[in-house]
């Protein structure tokens, strides 16, 4: 079971980073449950974070190989 655990940096903006265009939405409050970007991406904040964390892990693995 070749399982790897990758820990993202504590300050990685997983829920504030647009998974489509990469822009960071600095003014997103914790009470804002929907992420809306100027590029048109509208998605649940937690789902957005999961997409970005997946991409983060993939980038770490690519860099290691």
Q: What topology, given as strand order, has the largest sheet?
A: 1-2
- Provide the domain count: 1
How widely separated are the two ends? 18 Å
**Helical amount among residues, as a percent range?**
25-40%
By secondary-structure content and strand pairing, the structural class works out as: alpha+beta
Mean pLDDT: 95
Order of helices and strands: EEH
Strand fraction equals: 5-15%
InterPro entries: Cas12f1-like_TNB
Pfam families: Cas12f1-like_TNB
GO molecular function, one term: DNA binding
Keywords: DNA-binding
How would you sum up this structure, described in words?
By secondary structure, the chain is α+β, with helices and mostly antiparallel strands. The chain has one domain (1-65). 31% of the residues lie in helices and 9% in strands. The protein contains one helix and two strands. It has a two-stranded antiparallel ribbon with strand order 1-2. Strand 1 and strand 2 (42-44) form a beta hairpin. The longest helix has 20 residues, at 45-64. 12% of the residues are buried.
């Amino acid at each position: 079971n070749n399982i790897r655990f990758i820990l993202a940096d504590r300050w990685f903006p997983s829920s504030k980073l647009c998974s489509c265009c990469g822009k960071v939405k600095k003014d997103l409050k914790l009470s804002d449950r929907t992420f809306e970007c100027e590029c048109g991406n509208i998605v649940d904040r937690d789902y957005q974070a999961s997409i970005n964390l997946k991409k983060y892990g993939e980038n770490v693995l690519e860099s290691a190989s």
